[in-house]
Design brief:
The structure is a homodimer.
Chain A lengths: L1 E5 L8 H14 L2 E6 L1 H10 L8 E5 L10 H7 L4 H10 L5 E4 L3 H12 L9 E8 L2 E6 L9 H19 L5 E5 L10 H15 L4 E6 L3 H4 L4 E3 L2 H26 L3 H21 L7 E4 L4 E4 L6 H16 L2 H15 L7 H14 L1
Parallel strand pairs in A: 1-2, 1-4, 2-3, 4-11, 6-9, 7-8, 7-9
Antiparallel strand pairs in A: 5-6, 5-10, 10-11
Helix pairs in contact in A: 1-11, 3-5, 4-5, 6-7, 6-12
Enzyme class (chains A, B): transferase
Function (chains A, B): Catalyzes the reversible formation of acyl-phosphate (acyl-PO(4)) from acyl-[acyl-carrier-protein] (acyl-ACP). This enzyme utilizes acyl-ACP as fatty acyl donor, but not acyl-CoA.
Keywords (chains A, B): Cytoplasm, Lipid biosynthesis, Lipid metabolism, Phospholipid biosynthesis, Phospholipid metabolism, Transferase
Amino acid sequence: MKVVVDAMGGDNAPREIVKGAVAAVKQYGMQVILVGDEQEIRRELESCGGDKLKKIEVVHAEEKVEMDDSPSQILRTKRNSSIHQGLRLVKQGDGAAFFSAGNTGAVMACAKMILKTLPGIDRPAIAAVMPTVKGATVMCDVGANVDCKIENYVQFAIMASAYASLIMHKEKPSVGLMSVGEEDVKGNDITKNVFKFLSELGKSGVIDFYGNVEGKDVFKGTSDVIVVDGFAGNVALKVSESAGWYVSQMLKEELRSSLLTKIGAILLIPALKRIKKRADHSEYGGAPLLGVNGVCIIGHGSANETAVKYSVKMAHDLAVKHLNGLIAESIAESVKVLNVDKEDSFWNNIVEKFKRKTI
Amino acid sequence: MKVVVDAMGGDNAPREIVKGAVAAVKQYGMQVILVGDEQEIRRELESCGGDKLKKIEVVHAEEKVEMDDSPSQILRTKRNSSIHQGLRLVKQGDGAAFFSAGNTGAVMACAKMILKTLPGIDRPAIAAVMPTVKGATVMCDVGANVDCKIENYVQFAIMASAYASLIMHKEKPSVGLMSVGEEDVKGNDITKNVFKFLSELGKSGVIDFYGNVEGKDVFKGTSDVIVVDGFAGNVALKVSESAGWYVSQMLKEELRSSLLTKIGAILLIPALKRIKKRADHSEYGGAPLLGVNGVCIIGHGSANETAVKYSVKMAHDLAVKHLNGLIAESIAESVKVLNVDKEDSFWNNIVEKFKRKTI
């Protein structure tokens, strides 16, 4: 089972990508195909001692996608980019999973076009792992779909639940619906409707539906999964990252403010490092693009060797554990349990659509 | 100029509310009308030495609103509650501003019904002050409107800009639009349209439009104001508050983990206190409900004496500085500069509606 790695994607490509891939091969023993400018990749492999590893293959890609290229343009014009090439390898079955820290929009667009979506999935979604006081929570979607319909939320819930079950080792992770209050009646027009569908899936045991959660529940770890539209999810993710940055900025300033605080700070270095490590969730690797027919992991543009190593491991593990098989099963189960015989034309409409697309 | 205070609203009412009002009167010399159970209020006034102050009046209210009462029910059935009574005093001109730390939904509903909205405003919105590395930023809406139309966002921008100009002492605060990327083309269907209207207001100088901002810009203080729908705004606000709590939880645990860290922590107590103070924005008082015809400040349910004191001062200051006059002027200016003669029926439709409601 080979992981295909886009060696050219990300701010630190190809160096950190190649080093991360080599580290993954050395530490976990998996096979990797590096895709990109062959000459550059070979040079990096040599400089980090990866050129001797038989488990690493290199596939040349003519073109390179820049971080500010428009996704639709890349989709049409850069068919020989490392992203296209890498995804085609997965499509053909030469690789079991794909990882890229490159242009997120381009990876999403190309993955949807090349790998296609799983049966029953309209739109792929990005799931991010957030740190909580209890461990971690999976938030989905965090930016792939900024305008969502009811069926999209329902699919996010099913996909994220399958993903969380694998990474958290829980059979049925609890799934919360992001809202503005915890009571069942709280929410906007669409989340109130989504609530009914998720309740139905919850009653039937397809997912473990917790109910509504709020922004404050993210770090509390109230539910294992939080379902949210890609707009609010993206805002929540970026606010969270930025809040950590804000606190660390203040800490840095205040700890330098006097001799006593400087001494105190030195004594606290190990504790502060531990906090940084706890708040850092890079060990979960990149964020999977759930719902495409093939494992596809998107890394942060700033991904370094360690982040790449974990992401490659994650891509491999999700393929081994049949993430997509699990999602497909769960979708099929949902289709069975969602009734179309309710006296509610709105409900029936959504379910009909869901079933049509799935079968 | 009297500030009307709902003495019965909030988790710590009436004690902390009365103490806060007394502190505001003593420190800033304003006049206050306390509304609620007269006997209870008099008792609290006596116990904190407020019974001798001539600047404090008490108005009895028969009914009390509970935190979990449904807003629509309160609106109809509890017409003698301290919220109704207090807002009527403002409506009649006996008070210049209203403050309550009670049931937010009830205060919003009653304020809209009793005070009515300002000309040109469809729906009132809540503005929250967030701490940033540069000082503060005003986010609006943070929960009053979970389903927004284009004209609502435009009104939020105008109202929040007026509010920010008063509390930040800037003639034209910069106004950012919350989105999922900073480029002009980023956003969901509705924010992309809102972007065009805000750009037009920016070009005409009614507001200083910065462009799109992202979740990570909240703590950076990229813009003075952030315009957002009440759903994503509420999520952002609660995630922010919760992120601070999360970091402090980790700090507490880690600082207790060894003797060295305990010593370090003791040396850092003053620095940590300063950080807490910087991240705390209670000095800005509660959150104003912008757009109602009368100043109305909503406090946190957990508001203590200090928070109430600042909120009462804020309510007073916003009335003195004619917040609502400023909003009305700005709305009138917008109506003038937004053109209906564009070759875009969608645009014309929104502007027509906006103008009709305003005139």
